[in-house]
Amino acid sequence: MTAIKTDLCIIGGGSGGLSLAAGAVQMGAKVVLVEGHKMGGDCLNYGCVPSKALLAAGKQAQATRLGGFGVAGHDPQADYAAAKDHVRNVIATIEPHDSVERFEGLGVQVIQEFGEFISETELKAGDHVITARRFVIATGSSPFVPPIPGLEDVAYETNETLWELREKPGHLLIIGGGPIGLEMAQAHRRLGSDVTVIEGMKAMGKDDPELAAIILDKLRGEGVEIAEDAMAERITGDAGNITVQTKDGRSFTGTHLLMAVGRKANTDRLNLKVAGVETTRAGVQVDASLRSTNKRIYAIGDAAGGLQFTHVAGYHAGVVIRSILLGLPSKARTDHIPWATYTDPELAQVGPTEAEARKTYGDKLTVARFEYAGNDRAIATGKTTGLIKVMVVKGKPVGASIAGAEAGELIGIWAMAIANGLKMSAVANMVAPYPTLLEVNKRAAGAYFSPKLFENIWVKRVVGFVQKYLP
After folding, report:
1. Residue 387 annotated as binding?
2. What pLDDT does 215 receive?
3. DSSP-assigned letter for residue 168
4. Is 17 marked as binding a ligand?
5. Where do the Pyridine nucleotide-disulphide oxidoreductase dimerisation domain residues begin and end (predicted)?
6. Annotated binding-site residue? 139
């Protein structure tokens, strides 16, 4: 065994772990990174990157199919295997940035083994025993596969295996109507597969229902079957002929099955009990500073049991680096964290939805709305299906919901405003280039101020006085 003593040991080479390693080593800390699988984690290899690449292929196919703007559409010659090649090329392009070579070049000691705690102060990884001043668990999450009777006898895909599939599914069944399920539903439908989404409750159930309806209507219009309140009870069949039976008596048959019902934190192999680290059903039990029940050990990203987004893991890295390296108090917050579903149109959210905000703020809440159909750029590009809602309390945005083109980009303005405690006037005062979709945000801010300006009797009286009496 080789003994290693270091300032910081990071377990997991995904988004959060890599961000933390790069920052810490460049700030002068001695850093060991332990990764037993692929550098870049789920996001690069199985999640954000490949899914957006496949969505781009589907979007290209759909543009060819529909035509428009004076250009005739026609049936695309979609090559599923070639689309998967595009996915692989995208991953390969990004891989060097997350590679062992790059991080060793920065000065990080990378150990390519799985780690497990052997005491409250030691981690074993292969032939190495690592003692560190601080440990950070950044092991991410994996697909959660529920124990549906019959599933163990049927071949199925998850987001980790789907990318190896080279033959286009004839009819893809997807259990789970959340972001992963719906993104893959639209991508596969546009590439020529029949698709059925089977959701036990409501599709996009965590999002604003008014905005979620915009997305669901678009997918149904493209031929995606979305069955809601359809709790899977039994799965039967074999390769190429799979049937999902639901508790209400419905059945759905397809050629392939994708499980997309959620994710679970990767903590099982860490031997956390020996380390004195408590866990919950969601992940590692942490306080506001992301420190576990062992003061030497922190958890970030999906492993911390909160919001499961790549950008949250990166944000968490910034939170703990302040505490671990600089000895300064630092707490994580969630009110300013945005997220997006990259269907076409997109759906994005930051802070509470309208219903959540009404429950919290009651009569103090004002909801400003603006429809994409009133935006000149949306009209010019044929992207008029969409809506933005901004939840405002005492002149400050507390949440925003956007369904429409580039919603994932547009939500950034509201995330910045909420993060910095800005007022609605900060967005209203912004000068957006014309014509851009960015004006949707400015017009939403304007919708908040319009009643105060145009329906205020005192404003009218002041204007009248100025026009009558001032030279």
Report:
1. no
2. 98
3. P
4. no
5. 337-444
6. yes
Q: Give the pLDDT score at 14.
A: 97
**Is 146 annotated as ligand-binding?**
no
Query: Looking at residue 1, what is its pLDDT?
Result: 83
Is the pTM for the entire model greater than 0.90?
yes
Is 351 annotated in a binding site? The answer is no
- Determine the pLDDT at residue 454: 62
Determine if residue 67 is labeled as part of a ligand binding site.
no
Provide the b/e sequence for 43-67 (b: ≥16 CB within 10 Å).
bbbbbbbbbebbbbbbebbbebeee
Low pLDDT (below 70) residues in the chain: 452-456, 459
254 is in an annotated binding site: no
Answer yes or no: is 401 a known binding residue: no
Residues 6+ apart with CB under 8 A from 298: 134, 135, 136, 137, 286, 289, 290, 291, 292, 320, 323, 324
Q: Is 280 exposed, middle or buried (0-12, 13-18, 19+ CB in 10 A)?
A: exposed
| 133: β partners | none
140 known ligand binder: yes
* Residue-level pLDDT at 68: 95
Q: What is the pLDDT of residues 81-91, one digit of tens each?
A: 999 999 999 99
The response to whether 164 counts as a known ligand-binding position is no
Q: What are the phi and psi torsion angles at 84 (to 5°)?
A: -70, -30
Would the annotation count 243 as a binding residue?
no
Tokens read off for 192: 């020529």
Cis omega (within 30 of 0) for bond into 471:
no
